[in-house]
Specification:
- It is a single chain.
- Helix content is 4%, strand content 46%.
- It is mainly β and 262 residues long.
- It has two domains: 134 residues, Beta Barrel (Elongation Factor Tu (Ef-tu), domain 3), CATH 2.40.30; 118 residues, Jelly Rolls (Sandwich).
- Strands 1, 2, 3, 6, 7, 8, 9 and 10 form an eight-stranded antiparallel β-sheet that branches.
- Strand 18 and strand 19 form a beta hairpin.
- The longest helix has 11 residues.
- The model has no long low-confidence stretch (mean pLDDT 93).
Amino acid sequence: MESQHFRFNEIESQSMNLHIVKMSQDTFIETPYWGGRDIQERIVRNKLRPFHYGISKEPIEFSLELALLDENNQPKEWTSQIRYDISKWLLHDDYKPFQTYDDLTKIYYGIFIDKSNLSLINNQGYMELTFRTNSPYAWSGIEILNFDLSNNTTSQVISLENKSNIVQKYKPKIEIELVNGETSINLINTSNGNKEFQFVDLIADEIVSIDNENELILSDKFGSNPLEKFNEEWLELIQGVNEIEVIGKCKIQVKSQFPIVK
């Protein structure tokens, strides 16, 4: 994190006169890359190699040193009102987005943890904070794609890209609106073994919202249970561009946010 400026919970640090600083004399500046990884294995008696069954991953955690500086990078006083405003801004009980200006394409979602003290002389100085994220990786910005297939009499192909460089299969959120009396919809990922994502016998003009990662489906029609009409093949995107053949008249919105390491 080489920039002094950051954005937290959609508020710019400059608006609070708060800057990332480095109090030590070390030449290098640490930048979060990925979280901790640990091999999960079991030692088997009389076997040369342990039984490997996966990797455990830890969320990214990093420290920040923050100082109050004016427009000339001169120290400002930590007044009572400033302390009040900064604590209101930074302290939350749920995950909020954090970005630094050296790379705004990376988003960390996290919470400031551990106790914090101000290090002051004449009411000027800095504070140290620890930020714990919700993931071993950073995230891309949210991407929303819309496709109008209202006149889809046979089939049409749409392209969806898994832009993650560390997740082999990504599961996006999808909203499908059936139109023109359509009651069934079929999405075939021809780039992933022709796997079919299918609903049959839905209500005409029904809108279904699908969270593929968490395996949740909602309908805008009261009393409808679209899960009963679903083939339970959740949509997965392999790395790179996926060609999706769509059968059925519909409008589709795809919402993605990719885990990334960069």
